[in-house]
Amino acid sequence: MPPAKRQAAAPLEPPSGWTVDAVLKNVKKLRTTMGDQAAGKQTLADVGVSGVTKEVIAMDRHLVTRAIERIAMDAALTIMRGEGFSYTMPVRTASNMLYVPELDRLVLKDKMLERVFANASAARKTAITTRVLQLVLELCGRGIHVTKRDLFYTDVKLFKQQTESDDVLDDAACMIGCTRSSLNVVASEKGIVVGRIIFEDDGDTIDCTKMGVGGKAIPPSIDRVTSIRGDAQFILLIEKDAAFMRLAEDRFYNTYPCVIMTGKGQPDVATRLFLNKVRATLNIPVLGLFDADPYGLKILSVYMKGSKNMSYDAINLTTPDIKWLGVRPSDLDKYQIPKQCRLEMTEHDIKEGKQLLTEEFIKSNPEWHKELELMVRSKVKAEIQALSSFGFQYLSKEYLPRKLKEGDWI
Amino acid sequence: MPPAKRQAAAPLEPPSGWTVDAVLKNVKKLRTTMGDQAAGKQTLADVGVSGVTKEVIAMDRHLVTRAIERIAMDAALTIMRGEGFSYTMPVRTASNMLYVPELDRLVLKDKMLERVFANASAARKTAITTRVLQLVLELCGRGIHVTKRDLFYTDVKLFKQQTESDDVLDDAACMIGCTRSSLNVVASEKGIVVGRIIFEDDGDTIDCTKMGVGGKAIPPSIDRVTSIRGDAQFILLIEKDAAFMRLAEDRFYNTYPCVIMTGKGQPDVATRLFLNKVRATLNIPVLGLFDADPYGLKILSVYMKGSKNMSYDAINLTTPDIKWLGVRPSDLDKYQIPKQCRLEMTEHDIKEGKQLLTEEFIKSNPEWHKELELMVRSKVKAEIQALSSFGFQYLSKEYLPRKLKEGDWI
């Protein structure tokens, strides 16, 4: 093997005649209009909604420990009063969910359920709840994190199926009033990040401008990510890792100060928590680069609105104000994407597209609605990679600078 | 949110009465017995096999450029001689493959095929080959890397299906005599690494002891990974990320100097290249921690033997001498894994297990064969997570130190 040398690509220059400042002018303007609408900043109290369960908050392990001890104490007291052994917790079914337009997210309403040990149908679930609370107490006491799978395996005899311990984990978070990640039970990690951001991960300083082309794996335990800082002007959120790799290798962030991240398709919880935290801490806009197809929009909506199943934790998991930078259906003509790089939508695609047209987050934004209508009408979709038909570096050298300069997001 | 504090777990201590040196004694001994059998060091010439195509080698972009220019020049000369336009390349089908026991890998034999433009059935394929060579020339000229998907999109009209450009990429590598990653076409990245290793990634120094709990994403372009160094005594190769996260959070590598990596299930090409390179550079043993089921063994075999499809690049993609540390079928009784953490094998599992018993890499190793026989006979499997039944940190505090101390690998 010949001695490996650094084979660096030429530094990225803005398109000829443009300066970096000119390209970034609209991004800076967008930032000033963001004001206090920052993601994760507005709470139910801010918009004056009442009669709903309080939203969960991130707690440190000492607060979680105290909350579990209080729950156990309450249970012990009712037993001693001769009232039997039971837990009280918020109902997490769709009937107890409320969409709050001001926050653009689902929250739990105030219906509670009692899980009574003496009730034959609830005895096992009550036992599982007790065991899960005990395990979480142990995790918090030792300050370690485990996966849901690990948790399941600590008592297979009782839990039987992983879905049972998973389900009760969400119950436990709602009972305590904390986020699921506060329970020290984490999701596996999938996302990666590079760019003008520095943070501490469990005491190690991570400088994401010095992570090579591979990027930094987004840490699974968000509570260990602290001291987020950096001079990034915006976050570029990418659907898939191919476009991420292109921008990372071109060191796009060196020329245009930004944070680049991807959840590699359907994002995991860790990536969504990280995006939310970076967005809220640096208070910079998030620009989304997704495939121009229904699937791309669906993934975008997961970042923005989250899943119903974890709606109780939406405040930490969702980033409602993402701007749709591209690739938008109208881009196909505007950027003259060659016919052969456009793909015909399948029946299933068209059905998905029509379904999306009825969803609140599309309907509430006329510009998004118009784009999606165009897609469904033209029956044509395209991937981010379609831009490669103009050359491998068209994305970083032409498309993105032009998009940014024109403030071409909706 | 309360101010985030570092919630470090207590530093990992060896089991009581043991020293770190005592735990590592067998690993050090293993290292001395490795000698020159290092993975990727032995070539066909070393073992005296002839009559086969030369194996491909890693080339820098200047060598690849020269090779492509030579291929184009040859084609031009045959055209000018009036012999028509054609390419000659090694046949990549199973009939042209040879298993070399000394190397424990598949290599291509010397059968060649001619792709003739004037031949109606090969005209399109010849055109595709020409286009792919031209695109690779462009990539090498600019020193940038793209994914297979990017490459496909540069000429959808010609390639039609991505499988067509992918397939010709492998042809191109074989024609040039270089690895596929030398073509600057990379796989997407999936693997992560932490531990006592430092390397350069595109000029950035990456210290994997300072990557927090999230670890470093394994870079997609192996040729940019240089200056691998560190005081690791062994590589701990983990099947899935749950166990990886446990060891990363416990900073297992601070107590026992090692590199910890995972491909998160079925490994991608980048992870396999990285493992091979770290293994060959540091010349330290690789110990595998996999689920005790046929699927775990199959993934282990991908690391060791690779896939038939890319057998021409086996020397860089495979790491033949991985030791099977655990979780082995015999561990279930030895470590008294509770009955309820053992899972019954399905019909499909048993069939897979029986199939594996007939494979060369199992048959050639009596100890592996014995373990697999035990699995198929007992019809019982177990995941790494089954160890959590003894406590969340049993893996890092008890199981692994004991395994290492006893030299309990096969």
From TrEMBL, chains A, B:
<feature type="domain" description="Topoisomerase 6 subunit A/Spo11 TOPRIM">
    <location>
        <begin position="234"/>
        <end position="404"/>
    </location>
</feature>
<dbReference type="GO" id="GO:0007131">
    <property type="term" value="P:reciprocal meiotic recombination"/>
</dbReference>
<dbReference type="Pfam" id="PF21180">
    <property type="entry name" value="TOP6A-Spo11_Toprim"/>
</dbReference>
<dbReference type="GO" id="GO:0005524">
    <property type="term" value="F:ATP binding"/>
</dbReference>
<keyword id="KW-0460">Magnesium</keyword>
<dbReference type="GO" id="GO:0046872">
    <property type="term" value="F:metal ion binding"/>
</dbReference>
<dbReference type="GO" id="GO:0006265">
    <property type="term" value="P:DNA topological change"/>
</dbReference>
<comment type="similarity">
    <text>Belongs to the TOP6A family.</text>
</comment>
<dbReference type="InterPro" id="IPR002815">
    <property type="entry name" value="Spo11/TopoVI_A"/>
</dbReference>
<dbReference type="GO" id="GO:0000228">
    <property type="term" value="C:nuclear chromosome"/>
</dbReference>
<keyword id="KW-0238">DNA-binding</keyword>
<keyword id="KW-0547">Nucleotide-binding</keyword>
<keyword id="KW-0413">Isomerase</keyword>
<dbReference type="GO" id="GO:0003677">
    <property type="term" value="F:DNA binding"/>
</dbReference>
<dbReference type="InterPro" id="IPR036078">
    <property type="entry name" value="Spo11/TopoVI_A_sf"/>
</dbReference>
<dbReference type="Pfam" id="PF04406">
    <property type="entry name" value="TP6A_N"/>
</dbReference>
<feature type="domain" description="Spo11/DNA topoisomerase VI subunit A N-terminal">
    <location>
        <begin position="124"/>
        <end position="185"/>
    </location>
</feature>
<dbReference type="InterPro" id="IPR036388">
    <property type="entry name" value="WH-like_DNA-bd_sf"/>
</dbReference>
<dbReference type="InterPro" id="IPR034136">
    <property type="entry name" value="TOPRIM_Topo6A/Spo11"/>
</dbReference>
<dbReference type="GO" id="GO:0003918">
    <property type="term" value="F:DNA topoisomerase type II (double strand cut, ATP-hydrolyzing) activity"/>
</dbReference>
<keyword id="KW-0799">Topoisomerase</keyword>
<feature type="active site" description="O-(5'-phospho-DNA)-tyrosine intermediate">
    <location>
        <position position="153"/>
    </location>
</feature>
<dbReference type="GO" id="GO:0042138">
    <property type="term" value="P:meiotic DNA double-strand break formation"/>
</dbReference>
<protein>
    <recommendedName>
        <fullName>DNA topoisomerase (ATP-hydrolyzing)</fullName>
        <ecNumber>5.6.2.2</ecNumber>
    </recommendedName>
</protein>
<keyword id="KW-0539">Nucleus</keyword>
<dbReference type="InterPro" id="IPR004085">
    <property type="entry name" value="TopoVI_A"/>
</dbReference>
<keyword id="KW-0479">Metal-binding</keyword>
<dbReference type="GO" id="GO:0000706">
    <property type="term" value="P:meiotic DNA double-strand break processing"/>
</dbReference>
<dbReference type="InterPro" id="IPR013049">
    <property type="entry name" value="Spo11/TopoVI_A_N"/>
</dbReference>
